[in-house]
Amino acid sequence: MEYVIGIDSGGTKYRVQAENLRGEKLGNYVGSTASHYSFPEEQVKSRINHHIDQCLATFGGKRGDCKYLVCGTTGLDTQEDDIFLNMLYQNLEGFHCPIVVKNDAEIAHYTVTGGTGLLVISGTGSIAFGINQKGKMGRVGGWAFSIMGEEGSGTWVNRKALRYLANCYDKVAREGLLADLIKEKLEINTAKDLADYSAFLMKHKNGTTSLGEIVDYAAEHGDENAVRILKDAARETVKLADNLIQVLEMQRDSQIVIGIWGSNIVQSKIHSGEFEHLIKEKYPQAVVRRPKDEAVEGAARMARELYENRE
Fold it and tell me: What is the pTM of this model?
Protein backbone atom coordinates (compact mmCIF):
# COMPACT_ATOMS: atom_id res chain seq x y z
CA MET A 1 0.00 0.00 0.00
CA GLU A 2 1.48 3.34 -1.05
CA TYR A 3 1.43 6.10 1.55
CA VAL A 4 3.17 9.24 2.84
CA ILE A 5 4.42 10.03 6.33
CA GLY A 6 4.30 13.27 8.31
CA ILE A 7 6.33 13.68 11.50
CA ASP A 8 6.16 16.31 14.23
CA SER A 9 9.30 15.88 16.34
CA GLY A 10 8.87 18.11 19.37
CA GLY A 11 10.66 18.73 22.63
CA THR A 12 8.27 16.52 24.62
CA LYS A 13 6.42 14.34 22.06
CA TYR A 14 7.19 12.63 18.74
CA ARG A 15 4.16 12.28 16.50
CA VAL A 16 3.97 10.18 13.33
CA GLN A 17 1.04 10.05 10.91
CA ALA A 18 0.69 7.98 7.75
CA GLU A 19 -1.85 8.80 5.05
CA ASN A 20 -2.69 7.18 1.73
CA LEU A 21 -2.31 9.19 -1.46
CA ARG A 22 -5.91 10.40 -1.19
CA GLY A 23 -5.22 12.00 2.21
CA GLU A 24 -7.00 9.38 4.28
CA LYS A 25 -5.34 8.59 7.60
CA LEU A 26 -3.91 5.09 7.83
CA GLY A 27 -2.03 5.18 11.11
CA ASN A 28 -0.91 7.47 13.89
CA TYR A 29 1.50 7.11 16.77
CA VAL A 30 2.61 9.42 19.60
CA GLY A 31 5.84 8.62 21.41
CA SER A 32 8.39 10.34 23.61
CA THR A 33 10.75 12.98 22.25
CA ALA A 34 13.69 12.13 20.01
CA SER A 35 15.38 15.52 20.43
CA HIS A 36 19.05 15.42 19.49
CA TYR A 37 19.70 17.94 22.27
CA SER A 38 18.36 15.52 24.87
CA PHE A 39 19.92 12.18 23.87
CA PRO A 40 23.09 10.79 22.25
CA GLU A 41 22.98 9.99 18.54
CA GLU A 42 22.34 6.25 18.85
CA GLN A 43 19.43 6.79 21.19
CA VAL A 44 17.95 9.41 18.88
CA LYS A 45 18.17 6.92 15.98
CA SER A 46 16.59 4.20 18.08
CA ARG A 47 13.68 6.40 19.11
CA ILE A 48 13.02 7.62 15.56
CA ASN A 49 12.98 4.08 14.18
CA HIS A 50 10.81 2.80 17.02
CA HIS A 51 8.20 5.54 16.63
CA ILE A 52 7.98 5.15 12.86
CA ASP A 53 7.67 1.37 13.13
CA GLN A 54 4.92 1.69 15.74
CA CYS A 55 2.95 3.89 13.36
CA LEU A 56 3.45 1.48 10.44
CA ALA A 57 2.40 -1.44 12.62
CA THR A 58 -1.05 0.11 13.11
CA PHE A 59 -1.91 -0.55 9.44
CA GLY A 60 0.68 -3.08 8.33
CA GLY A 61 2.70 -0.56 6.34
CA LYS A 62 6.10 -1.38 4.86
CA ARG A 63 8.91 1.15 4.71
CA GLY A 64 9.55 0.47 1.06
CA ASP A 65 6.00 1.54 0.12
CA CYS A 66 6.40 5.07 1.48
CA LYS A 67 6.35 7.64 -1.34
CA TYR A 68 7.35 10.77 0.63
CA LEU A 69 8.32 11.63 4.21
CA VAL A 70 8.28 15.11 5.75
CA CYS A 71 9.58 15.74 9.26
CA GLY A 72 9.14 19.00 11.14
CA THR A 73 11.53 19.06 14.07
CA THR A 74 12.44 21.24 16.97
CA GLY A 75 16.10 22.13 17.36
CA LEU A 76 16.83 22.74 13.68
CA ASP A 77 18.25 26.24 14.08
CA THR A 78 21.80 26.08 12.75
CA GLN A 79 23.65 24.66 9.77
CA GLU A 80 25.11 22.02 12.07
CA ASP A 81 21.61 20.98 13.16
CA ASP A 82 20.54 20.76 9.53
CA ILE A 83 23.46 18.54 8.56
CA PHE A 84 23.07 16.25 11.57
CA LEU A 85 19.30 15.78 11.34
CA ASN A 86 19.30 15.29 7.59
CA MET A 87 21.99 12.64 8.01
CA LEU A 88 19.80 10.79 10.50
CA TYR A 89 16.67 10.82 8.37
CA GLN A 90 18.24 10.36 4.94
CA ASN A 91 19.89 7.18 6.23
CA LEU A 92 16.75 5.55 7.61
CA GLU A 93 16.87 1.92 6.52
CA GLY A 94 14.19 0.63 4.17
CA PHE A 95 13.01 4.00 2.86
CA HIS A 96 13.64 4.72 -0.82
CA CYS A 97 11.50 7.84 -1.08
CA PRO A 98 12.39 11.54 -0.84
CA ILE A 99 12.79 12.67 2.78
CA VAL A 100 12.45 16.34 3.77
CA VAL A 101 13.48 17.67 7.18
CA LYS A 102 12.36 21.17 8.17
CA ASN A 103 12.24 23.36 11.24
CA ASP A 104 8.98 22.76 13.09
CA ALA A 105 8.08 26.45 12.67
CA GLU A 106 8.03 25.92 8.90
CA ILE A 107 5.64 22.99 9.26
CA ALA A 108 3.39 24.92 11.62
CA HIS A 109 3.46 27.82 9.16
CA TYR A 110 2.41 25.57 6.29
CA THR A 111 -0.29 23.92 8.44
CA VAL A 112 -2.00 27.23 9.23
CA THR A 113 -1.27 29.43 6.20
CA GLY A 114 -0.97 26.88 3.42
CA GLY A 115 2.51 28.13 2.60
CA THR A 116 2.26 31.90 2.10
CA GLY A 117 1.93 34.46 4.88
CA LEU A 118 3.12 34.82 8.45
CA LEU A 119 2.96 32.62 11.51
CA VAL A 120 3.37 34.04 15.00
CA ILE A 121 4.22 31.37 17.54
CA SER A 122 3.71 32.13 21.22
CA GLY A 123 4.17 29.07 23.37
CA THR A 124 6.91 28.67 25.96
CA GLY A 125 8.97 30.90 23.66
CA SER A 126 8.03 33.08 20.71
CA ILE A 127 9.03 33.55 17.09
CA ALA A 128 7.55 34.80 13.83
CA PHE A 129 8.17 32.94 10.58
CA GLY A 130 6.93 33.87 7.14
CA ILE A 131 7.09 33.42 3.39
CA ASN A 132 5.96 36.21 1.07
CA GLN A 133 4.28 35.87 -2.32
CA LYS A 134 7.66 35.87 -4.07
CA GLY A 135 8.83 32.93 -1.98
CA LYS A 136 11.21 34.94 0.20
CA MET A 137 11.52 33.41 3.65
CA GLY A 138 12.18 35.24 6.92
CA ARG A 139 12.02 34.90 10.68
CA VAL A 140 12.03 37.35 13.57
CA GLY A 141 12.51 36.54 17.24
CA GLY A 142 13.27 33.18 18.74
CA TRP A 143 16.03 34.68 20.86
CA ALA A 144 16.62 33.63 24.45
CA PHE A 145 15.03 35.46 27.36
CA SER A 146 18.54 36.24 28.64
CA ILE A 147 18.86 38.82 25.85
CA MET A 148 15.30 40.09 26.25
CA GLY A 149 13.86 37.65 23.73
CA GLU A 150 10.79 35.39 23.92
CA GLU A 151 8.61 38.47 23.65
CA GLY A 152 4.97 37.89 24.55
CA SER A 153 5.59 34.19 25.21
CA GLY A 154 4.58 31.99 28.11
CA THR A 155 7.97 32.63 29.67
CA TRP A 156 7.41 36.37 29.25
CA VAL A 157 3.95 36.13 30.88
CA ASN A 158 5.45 34.18 33.79
CA ARG A 159 8.05 36.87 34.47
CA LYS A 160 5.50 39.66 34.19
CA ALA A 161 3.20 37.90 36.64
CA LEU A 162 6.03 37.45 39.14
CA ARG A 163 7.06 41.08 38.69
CA TYR A 164 3.50 42.11 39.47
CA LEU A 165 3.65 40.12 42.70
CA ALA A 166 6.94 41.83 43.56
CA ASN A 167 5.24 45.18 43.00
CA CYS A 168 2.54 44.10 45.42
CA TYR A 169 5.14 43.43 48.13
CA ASP A 170 6.67 46.84 47.34
CA LYS A 171 3.21 48.40 47.81
CA VAL A 172 3.42 49.73 44.25
CA ALA A 173 0.56 47.53 43.06
CA ARG A 174 -2.59 46.43 44.83
CA GLU A 175 -3.09 42.74 45.49
CA GLY A 176 -6.01 41.10 43.75
CA LEU A 177 -7.14 37.75 42.39
CA LEU A 178 -3.98 37.27 40.35
CA ALA A 179 -1.74 37.80 43.37
CA ASP A 180 -3.80 35.34 45.41
CA LEU A 181 -3.60 32.70 42.67
CA ILE A 182 0.17 33.08 42.21
CA LYS A 183 0.76 32.78 45.94
CA GLU A 184 -1.37 29.66 46.12
CA LYS A 185 0.22 28.06 43.05
CA LEU A 186 3.83 28.70 44.08
CA GLU A 187 3.29 28.53 47.85
CA ILE A 188 4.62 32.04 48.29
CA ASN A 189 3.50 33.77 51.48
CA THR A 190 6.12 36.45 52.06
CA ALA A 191 8.49 38.71 50.17
CA LYS A 192 11.33 36.42 51.23
CA ASP A 193 9.54 33.45 49.66
CA LEU A 194 9.41 35.37 46.39
CA ALA A 195 13.09 36.30 46.67
CA ASP A 196 13.96 32.65 47.31
CA TYR A 197 11.90 31.59 44.30
CA SER A 198 13.69 34.19 42.21
CA ALA A 199 17.04 32.78 43.30
CA PHE A 200 15.80 29.31 42.35
CA LEU A 201 14.92 30.54 38.86
CA MET A 202 18.39 32.01 38.47
CA LYS A 203 19.89 28.57 39.05
CA HIS A 204 17.25 26.47 37.29
CA LYS A 205 16.26 28.29 34.12
CA ASN A 206 13.87 25.52 33.07
CA GLY A 207 12.26 25.18 36.48
CA THR A 208 9.57 27.84 36.12
CA THR A 209 6.02 26.74 36.85
CA SER A 210 3.73 27.93 34.06
CA LEU A 211 1.45 30.72 35.22
CA GLY A 212 -0.32 31.24 31.89
CA GLU A 213 -3.58 29.53 32.89
CA ILE A 214 -3.63 31.48 36.14
CA VAL A 215 -3.18 34.79 34.38
CA ASP A 216 -5.88 33.89 31.83
CA TYR A 217 -8.29 32.82 34.58
CA ALA A 218 -7.71 35.99 36.59
CA ALA A 219 -8.10 38.17 33.49
CA GLU A 220 -11.36 36.51 32.49
CA HIS A 221 -12.64 37.16 36.01
CA GLY A 222 -11.89 40.86 35.82
CA ASP A 223 -8.44 41.20 37.37
CA GLU A 224 -7.07 44.39 35.80
CA ASN A 225 -3.42 43.46 36.33
CA ALA A 226 -3.89 40.12 34.59
CA VAL A 227 -5.68 41.82 31.70
CA ARG A 228 -2.84 44.30 31.41
CA ILE A 229 -0.23 41.52 31.27
CA LEU A 230 -2.06 39.72 28.46
CA LYS A 231 -2.64 42.89 26.46
CA ASP A 232 1.03 43.78 26.85
CA ALA A 233 1.90 40.26 25.65
CA ALA A 234 -0.28 40.88 22.59
CA ARG A 235 1.59 44.09 21.86
CA GLU A 236 4.85 42.15 21.93
CA THR A 237 3.60 39.44 19.57
CA VAL A 238 2.21 42.14 17.27
CA LYS A 239 5.71 43.67 17.16
CA LEU A 240 7.08 40.33 15.99
CA ALA A 241 4.49 40.17 13.21
CA ASP A 242 4.94 43.82 12.27
CA ASN A 243 8.73 43.52 12.10
CA LEU A 244 8.50 40.45 9.88
CA ILE A 245 5.98 42.14 7.60
CA GLN A 246 8.55 44.90 7.13
CA VAL A 247 11.41 42.44 6.58
CA LEU A 248 9.43 40.56 3.92
CA GLU A 249 8.04 43.79 2.41
CA MET A 250 4.45 42.60 2.71
CA GLN A 251 2.92 45.81 4.06
CA ARG A 252 1.38 46.74 0.68
CA ASP A 253 0.01 43.28 -0.10
CA SER A 254 -3.73 43.24 -0.74
CA GLN A 255 -4.06 40.48 1.87
CA ILE A 256 -1.71 39.40 4.65
CA VAL A 257 -2.46 35.98 6.09
CA ILE A 258 -1.23 35.75 9.68
CA GLY A 259 -1.51 32.47 11.53
CA ILE A 260 -1.21 32.12 15.28
CA TRP A 261 0.27 29.06 16.98
CA GLY A 262 1.09 28.03 20.52
CA SER A 263 -1.05 27.70 23.63
CA ASN A 264 0.02 31.04 25.10
CA ILE A 265 -1.83 32.92 22.36
CA VAL A 266 -4.28 30.42 20.86
CA GLN A 267 -5.80 29.41 24.21
CA SER A 268 -5.93 32.95 25.59
CA LYS A 269 -9.02 34.86 24.46
CA ILE A 270 -7.62 38.18 25.61
CA HIS A 271 -4.14 37.71 24.12
CA SER A 272 -5.42 36.46 20.76
CA GLY A 273 -8.27 38.97 20.65
CA GLU A 274 -6.00 41.92 21.39
CA PHE A 275 -3.43 40.62 18.89
CA GLU A 276 -6.06 40.50 16.13
CA HIS A 277 -7.40 43.94 17.06
CA LEU A 278 -3.97 45.59 17.05
CA ILE A 279 -2.64 43.94 13.91
CA LYS A 280 -5.80 44.82 11.94
CA GLU A 281 -5.63 48.35 13.26
CA LYS A 282 -2.29 48.77 11.48
CA TYR A 283 -2.94 46.35 8.60
CA PRO A 284 -6.67 46.29 7.76
CA GLN A 285 -5.95 43.70 5.07
CA ALA A 286 -4.66 41.22 7.65
CA VAL A 287 -6.50 37.91 7.98
CA VAL A 288 -5.77 36.12 11.26
CA ARG A 289 -6.07 32.34 11.17
CA ARG A 290 -6.18 29.87 14.03
CA PRO A 291 -4.86 26.31 13.61
CA LYS A 292 -7.44 23.77 12.49
CA ASP A 293 -5.03 20.85 12.24
CA GLU A 294 -2.13 19.49 14.25
CA ALA A 295 1.41 19.99 12.95
CA VAL A 296 1.75 16.27 12.19
CA GLU A 297 -1.30 16.53 9.90
CA GLY A 298 0.27 19.50 8.16
CA ALA A 299 3.51 17.54 7.67
CA ALA A 300 1.58 14.65 6.12
CA ARG A 301 -0.33 17.03 3.86
CA MET A 302 2.94 18.65 2.76
CA ALA A 303 4.38 15.21 2.01
CA ARG A 304 1.37 14.37 -0.15
CA GLU A 305 1.56 17.71 -1.96
CA LEU A 306 5.28 17.33 -2.63
CA TYR A 307 4.68 13.86 -3.99
CA GLU A 308 1.87 15.07 -6.25
CA ASN A 309 3.99 17.94 -7.58
CA ARG A 310 7.18 15.93 -8.05
CA GLU A 311 8.91 16.26 -11.41
Answer: 0.84
